[in-house]
Amino acid sequence: MIEIDDLADVPHHLDVVAERIWTAWWRDKGHGIERITTPLRESLERRSIPFTLVAHRNGTFCGTVSVIASDVAERPELTPWIAALWIEPDLRRRGLGAALLHHAVRRAAGFGTAQLYLYASDERRAFYEGRGWRALGIPAPEPEMTILTLAVA
């Protein structure tokens, strides 16, 4: 059975979470892994936001998602954001991404969040729209990307 916990409850997964996020989105842009490890360590402080969730089974990392203050520097007024949803390749298309997303949305709502945002590639947009997310209708700073929103209240 796959469990979903706060990274603060399973801190031994911090290094693998950082490595997956860095490899998927930051390494090829020339950033060091500390760009990820530093904010992830903030997740360990158990404040409301930011937080990171980890899916794991029998001690093995399966996936992750974070809720952060901002994912698009050009839009600081939009907050908070779902970020870095990652599922291990051999576990994809089995509902784990949807489960992590659902847990993140519920937890953010529990902290009083009424609206969430995320930044998705056109390739991934349908996944989120199938779960109630809608395009915000403002230009995204990168081509082939869309800013999506979800009312959680």
Automatic annotation (TrEMBL):
GO molecular function annotation: acyltransferase activity, transferring groups other than amino-acyl groups
Residues of the N-acetyltransferase domain: 1-153
Pfam families xref list: Acetyltransf_1
Protein name: GNAT family N-acetyltransferase
Organism: Segnochrobactrum spirostomi
Origin: domain of life: Bacteria
Listed InterPro entries: Acyl_CoA_acyltransferase, Bact_Acetyltransf, GNAT_dom
Keyword annotations of the record: Acyltransferase, Transferase
